Amino acid sequence: MTAFGRNFLPGPTDVHPEVLAALGQSMFGHRSPRMRAMLAAMQPSLQECFGTREPVFLATSSATGLIEAAVRSGVRHRVLVAVGGYFGEYFARIAEACGKQAFRVEVHPGCTITPEQLDQFLEGPAVDAVALVHSESSTGALADIAALARVVRARKDVLLLVDGVTSVGALPIEMDRWGVDYYCTGSQKAMALPPGLAMGAASERFQERAARQDDAGYYQSVRRMVRIARESLPTWTPAVSLLLALECQLARIARDGGWAARWERHRRMLAVMEAWVASRSDVRLMAAPGARSPAISAVRLPPHAGAPAVIQALEERGYLVGGSLDPRHDPIVRIGHMGDLGPAHLEALLADLGEILA
């Protein structure tokens, strides 16, 4: 068993012992007044996290479920997808599996699409939505969603859908102010909960389109999920234990200084990572300076270092890290520095990684 503070996987991330204890509470009725009160009490914190006045809805699924929901409820026929890594391509494949036409805009791994590039591509084939990955977990690259949203909003009737799986909870999200139409995340990333709970929010524009979609399905209907969330009711039969864990985690976040303190801690972890890489000549980050995720880093190792061997050596010292999602980019290790981890935890990992690479 890995001790707390030594799990640096890109997900599932470490879960604090207090949150794990909350999972052990007794079950109670998911249609009960207690459930309704709990869901209502959690909304203000979740809305602050997403930067929206719209209700944040909760689904018993992975974030993939809410990405598919975004496509089914928000894409009529065609979607432009920026692909700069594994999860951009993942979004495109989900769209195609839902019967939509996906136009891929390929950018170099480690880079993100620029507003100028997006503007140029939107002059091409007409689309009714743009799909972006905010924090690309395969490369550690962070897109400038605020700037990209301005480009999308200049187009009438084009929605902006954002995969915020490793950004929500790790940095300030201003969904309403930026003009993003859809954001979603999963519980096992920066929220630092066990897997199985997805969270999302949809703009009024998105909701208006969703109300007219005739192929949105039932379980993943965003229109239904928003309506149910407004009533402080659970979506279908929920994972009650995960909701109890979320309740505990939101209370911990408030007690530890709120979302601003959590976002600042993630910023400091990125600074630790960048300083460590800058101090060495044998490693580098895949993501470009100024466009790096505060939640995850893809570290390119020296040519002589095999990623599997490095990952195994770290595991022997009690650490968990991830490998590359694309063999073409090896040797790479992916280090998740998010959730309830702090700079001291990351410094300890990097000290051991430095010894292994020596």
Characterization of the model:
This protein has 358 residues and is of the alpha/beta class. Helix content is 41%, strand content 15%. The protein has 13 helices and 13 strands. Strands 1-9-8-7-4-2-3 form a seven-stranded mixed sheet, sandwiched between helices. A four-stranded antiparallel sheet has the order 10-11-13-12. Strands 5-6 form a two-stranded antiparallel sheet. Strand 12 (322-323) and strand 13 form a beta hairpin. Helix 2 crosses helix 10 (240-255).
- Which sequence of SSEs, written as H and E, runs from N to C? HHEHEHEHEEEHEHEEHHHHEEHEEH
Q: Main beta sheet: strand number and arrangement? A: 7 strands, mixed
Report the β-strand fraction as a percent range.
Answer: 5-15%
What is the count of structural domains? 2
Mean pLDDT: 97
CATH architecture of the largest domain: 3-Layer(aba) Sandwich
CATH hierarchy, class of the largest domain: Alpha Beta
Task: Label the overall shape.
Answer: globular
Estimated radius of gyration: 20 Å
**Segments where pLDDT lies below 50 for 5+ residues?**
none
Distance between the termini: 27 Å
* Amount of helix: 40-55%
CATH homologous superfamily of the largest domain - what is it? Type I PLP-dependent aspartate aminotransferase-like (Major domain)
User: What is the oligomeric state here?
Assistant: single chain
Instruction: Please give the order of strands in the largest beta sheet.
Output: 1-9-8-7-4-2-3
- CATH topology title of the largest domain: Aspartate Aminotransferase, domain 2
- Counted by DSSP, the helix tally is 13
